[in-house]
């Protein structure tokens, strides 16, 4: 279209043209997989080499699919690696990113913790893979820790003071106890037995496994049956009753992840978690795996959510998931045991004279 | 007229076992209550202390139980005789003992049964102890051992119906033991049961023929002297 043609157009036609052009740009951006930031266009140029294992050294390979899911992909490669030499890859190396440019607050917080002297950001986070804590399971978070902290050693060390240490380390993200947070939530996720065996180890159910069960329906409809993007306690119970091969596990997770790693004495107090109706147990989400490897978070009705997990045969949290009906049955049994002392004892007291007379006679 | 005879009813290994068992079970009940209701109970200060006390007491009671079984079954070889009710116990003894507790005791009549070293328990005691020592205690111990080793014994836990079922069973069995404990302690006050369990000896009154109960007996009543074992035990005591 020539400028002269534009001048001839009416105002309405100009507006329509602008809207068409904007829609085209948005459509193109969506096709690239980016929601914002136009600098990301350069990612394709970088990934054309760095996204292929054979073209670059192993340490420089970036998995394009996983990188696209990170928040960093939206910024574009040059946002962190600003000064790529013109003669790259033959000339000088690309400068390393400085995380502090964007994450200065976290960096300051991290510097106060126990890890600061041991490793830098990339010791735990690969910036080309890193995801929001909400998009990863607790087990995945712990896998980061186990790169340095040997699982067996940690189990033995925690076992010096923590009962059932292996169970605790398996069921909790390390950051729940080793970072301070004001609020916590219960992150629920779907598990299935390894190899579909009844006695198989429980592991996080993959998207493909759940899709096979859900069929043509979205996976989330397995739990959120009325699809209102909100899971009620009743829906949880129905899921537990009906899905025999799948179970829900709950994991207490900090709502705001701190980077000041420390040993918190308050976590040695077991009732921090093992208390029924604790405020920490009220807010919950269910993480449902998505096709692109992320998780869809669906909020769950507030309340004693762990109680609703009662049907899971492999999940029980002492002091927190006790069943009220069992308590009533237990009380009834104890009351039966009191019938003899109370009832018999009362008549015994009333008839004490009979026995005294007999003793006197003999 | 009557005179008192001493019978050595409870040998020292059984007395030690009994009191270890008794104190262990009381500690288990208290610590177990705190573990289940941490928001209302803090008997052993912290939750962790309650768990440690519960685990330790559980192991001690389990060992003590094994010792009891070994002693009666292997050393004395009287386990079956003492704890399994015989035909007479089932046909008449249970009803007789029940009638005694519900009626005769209030009228001031003596117990229709008297303990001897080989027949320590009356028919009701036998039935109750059979249930407690052969069903309740082994089950509560086994479920406790599974709960103590949830991870290493995971397959066994699932074979038993999962951790929730085991927790529920352990809790209900513990409630049943507490119910039994209340009845057991109360019934021990009805006769001279506590003293023999402390010192081993029991003093029994030896009745002469003139002292037999009235001829018009209450239906089902069967006085002590008609028990042949008791007669024999008294004879042995006299000769020794």
From TrEMBL, chain B:
The chain crosses the membrane at residues 12-33, 53-72, 128-150, 162-187. InterPro entries: Cyt_b561_bac/Ni-Hgenase (IPR011577), Di-haem_cyt_TM (IPR016174), Hydrogenase_cytochrome (IPR051542), Ni-dep_Hydgase_cyt-B (IPR000516). The keyword Ribonucleoprotein does not apply. Residues 10-195 form the Cytochrome b561 bacterial/Ni-hydrogenase domain. It is found in: Cell membrane. It is a multi-pass membrane protein. Its main location: membrane. Pfam families: Ni_hydr_CYTB. Keywords: Cell membrane, Electron transport, Heme, Iron, Membrane, Metal-binding, Transmembrane, Transmembrane helix, Transport. It comes from the Bacteria. PANTHER family: CYTOCHROME YDHU-RELATED, NI/FE-HYDROGENASE 1 B-TYPE CYTOCHROME SUBUNIT. Belongs to the HupC/HyaC/HydC family. This is Cytochrome b/b6 domain-containing protein. It comes from Geomonas anaerohicana.
């Amino acid at each position: 279209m020539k400028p002269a043609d534009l001048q001839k157009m009416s105002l309405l036609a100009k507006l329509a043209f602008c809207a068409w052009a904007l829609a085209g740009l948005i459509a193109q951006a969506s096709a690239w997989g980016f929601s914002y930031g136009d600098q990301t266009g350069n990612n394709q140029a970088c990934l054309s080499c760095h996204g292929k294992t054979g073209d670059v050294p192993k340490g420089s390979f970036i998995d394009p699919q996983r990188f696209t899911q990170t928040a960093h992909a939206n910024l574009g490669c040059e946002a962190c690696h600003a000064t790529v030499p013109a003669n790259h890859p033959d000339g000088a190396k690309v400068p390393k990113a400085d995380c502090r440019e964007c994450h200065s607050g976290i960096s300051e917080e991290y510097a106060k913790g126990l890890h600061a002297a041991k490793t830098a950001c990339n010791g735990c986070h690969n910036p080309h893979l890193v995801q929001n804590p909400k998009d990863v399971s607790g087990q995945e978070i712990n896998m980061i820790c186990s790169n340095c902290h040997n699982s067996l050693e940690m189990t033995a060390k925690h076992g010096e003071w923590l009962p059932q240490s292996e169970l605790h380390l398996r069921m909790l993200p390390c950051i729940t106890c080793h970072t301070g947070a004001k609020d916590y939530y219960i992150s629920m996720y779907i598990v299935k037995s390894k190899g579909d065996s009844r006695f198989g180890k429980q592991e996080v159910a993959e998207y493909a496994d759940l899709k096979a069960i859900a069929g043509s329906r979205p996976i989330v409809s397995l739990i959120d049956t009325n699809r209102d993007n909100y899971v009620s306690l009743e829906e949880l119970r129905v899921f537990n009753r009906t899905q025999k091969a799948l179970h829900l596990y709950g994991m207490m997770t900090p709502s705001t992840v701190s980077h000041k790693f420390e040993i918190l004495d308050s976590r040695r107090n077991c009732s921090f978690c093992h208390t029924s109706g604790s405020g920490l147990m009220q807010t919950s989400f269910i993480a449902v795996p998505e096709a692109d490897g992320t998780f869809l978070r669906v909020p769950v009705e507030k309340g004693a959510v762990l109680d609703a997990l009662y049907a899971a045969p492999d999940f029980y949290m002492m002091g927190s998931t006790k069943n009220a009906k069992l308590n009533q049955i237990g009380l009834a049994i104890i009351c039966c045991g009191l019938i003899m002392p109370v009832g018999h004892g009362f008549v015994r007291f009333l008839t004490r004279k009979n026995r005294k007379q007999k003793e006197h006679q003999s | 007229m009557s005179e008192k005879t001493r019978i050595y009813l409870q040998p020292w290994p059984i007395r030690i076992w009994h009191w270890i068992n008794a104190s262990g079970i009381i500690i288990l009940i208290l610590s177990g209550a705190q573990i289940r209701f941490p928001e209302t109970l803090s008997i052993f200060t912290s939750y962790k202390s309650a768990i440690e006390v519960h685990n330790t007491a559980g192991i001690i009671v389990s060992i003590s139980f094994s010792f009891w079984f070994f002693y009666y079954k292997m050393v004395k070889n009287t386990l079956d005789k003492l704890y399994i009710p015989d035909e007479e116990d089932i046909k008449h003894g249970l009803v007789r003992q029940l009638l005694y507790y519900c009626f005769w005791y209030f009228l001031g009549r003596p117990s229709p049964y008297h303990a001897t070293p080989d027949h320590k328990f009356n028919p009701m005691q036998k039935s109750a102890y059979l249930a407690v020592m052969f069903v309740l205690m082994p089950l509560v111990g086994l479920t406790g051992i599974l709960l103590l080793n949830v991870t290493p014994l995971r397959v066994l836990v699932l074979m038993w119906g999962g951790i929730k079922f085991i927790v529920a069973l352990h809790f209900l069995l513990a409630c049943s033991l507490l119910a039994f404990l209340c009845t057991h302690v109360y019934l021990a006050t009805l006769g001279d049961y506590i003293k023999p369990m402390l010192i081993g000896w029991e003093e029994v009154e030896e009745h002469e023929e003139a002292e037999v109960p009235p001829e018009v007996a209450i239906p089902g009543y069967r006085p002590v002297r008609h028990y042949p074992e008791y007669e024999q035990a008294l004879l042995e005591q006299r000769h020794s």
